[in-house]
Design brief:
- With about 325 residues, this protein is mostly helical.
- It has one domain: ABC transporter involved in vitamin B12 uptake, BtuC.
- Helix content is about 80%, strand content about 0%.
- Helix 4 packs antiparallel against helix 5, helix 12 crosses helix 14 and helix 13 crosses helix 14.
- The protein is globular, with a radius of gyration of 20 Å.
Length: about 325
């Protein structure tokens, strides 16, 4: 049952998310007033209406979905590997997605075919890591981590090969996609369905995630079937990451920073942490993308650059806070 303080925090995060989405529709190379926005929403066939309905709202919605996915995947990965530095990309999922997307760009395929190709590459990477890490013995988080890191290194080498052999005309688009870019992102219905299904499944496993966070041995003693739970967490986190990368490329720091910030705010109970992380992750990415669109308007920056510039100092502050707290004990 939710505490009143937790309910208040979730409501405030929801209001913050709504404000971020509103800001994303108002700001850009062409700034809207609230009255002009209302008129544009009522007249979708007008020039302003098309700008809002066909560009800004779909982009803001896609940004919120991707941010929520990365934040939830970060929470799950940190439980899976019991490592506070784990993020959604640590097991090589983004490398497979990036390789297939870049190959599609090199071949001159249409923009509508890039997300399915990226999703296919991410799913192949998931199956590859799963098959190599599973082996014949019991679950081993260390084996999974090592397999993912080595697989990511292999994808990285192939990505470098594609970039080196690609044409100069496509190089800029490739680099933007690798850094994370929402310029051509739209809100896919299947992506929203995956987000809601995985979030619902993760919330249903909230108590098990809390127990697993205390250690695998403790979870076994408390009656949890850890092997099935761990593979389930891996699959859910990888599916979210694959979908996010297929829509917007590789956007760093969201899945690393947001879970840490939300733990400070709501604690480690995953039944509260997961929805809080989803709301704040979506908000963080929407605000970052708004900055990417406006800071040097009419030119646009890759949103991954903004999340890195914001994420690095935030993470250093968190590390310093943890160091000071440890020194005071």
């Amino acid at each position: 049952m939710l505490k009143s303080s937790h309910s208040t925090i979730l409501i405030l995060l929801g209001l913050l998310a709504s404000g971020a989405l509103l800001l994303a529709t108002l700001l850009g190379s062409e700034t809207f007033s609230l009255a002009r926005l209302v008129t544009a929403l009522q007249q979708p066939a007008s020039l302003d209406g098309q700008l809002i309905w066909r560009l800004r709202l779909p982009r803001a919605g896609a940004g919120f979905m991707v941010g929520a996915m990365l934040a939830i995947a970060g929470c799950l990965m940190q439980v899976l590997l019991r490592n506070p530095l784990a993020d959604p990309y640590i097991l090589g999922v983004s490398g497979g997605a990036a390789l297939f997307a870049l190959v599609g760009m090199t071949l001159g395929l249409g923009a509508s075919l890039i997300p399915p190709l990226a999703l296919l590459g991410a799913l192949i990477s998931i199956l590859l890591v799963f098959g190599l890490a599973r082996g014949a013995g019991p679950w081993s988080g260390t084996r999974l981590l090592l397999t993912g890191v080595v697989t990511a290194a292999g994808w990285g080498a192939l990505i470098s090969l594609v970039l080196a052999s690609g044409s100069d005309n496509s190089l800029r688009g490739m680099l933007f996609w690798l850094m994370g870019d929402l310029s051509y992102a739209r809100l896919p219905g299947w992506g929203v369905a995956i987000l809601l299904l995985v979030l619902g499944a993760a919330l249903a496993l909230g108590r098990s995630l809390n127990v697993l966070g205390m250690g695998e041995s403790t979870a076994r003693l408390l009656g949890e079937s850890t092997q099935g739970l761990l593979w389930g967490i891996y699959f859910m986190a990888s599916l979210l990451t694959a979908t996010a990368v297929s829509v917007a490329g590789s956007i760093g720091f969201v899945g690393l920073i947001v879970p840490h910030l939300m733990r400070l705010l709501v604690g480690s109970d995953h039944r509260i942490l997961l929805p809080a992380a989803a709301l704040f992750g979506g908000t963080f990415l929407v605000l970052s993308d708004t900055l990417a669109r406006t800071v040097v308007a009419p030119r646009q920056l890759p949103v991954g650059v903004i999340t890195a510039l914001l994420g690095v100092p935030l993470f250093l502050l968190l590390l310093n806070r943890a160091r000071l707290r440890a020194g005071a004990q």
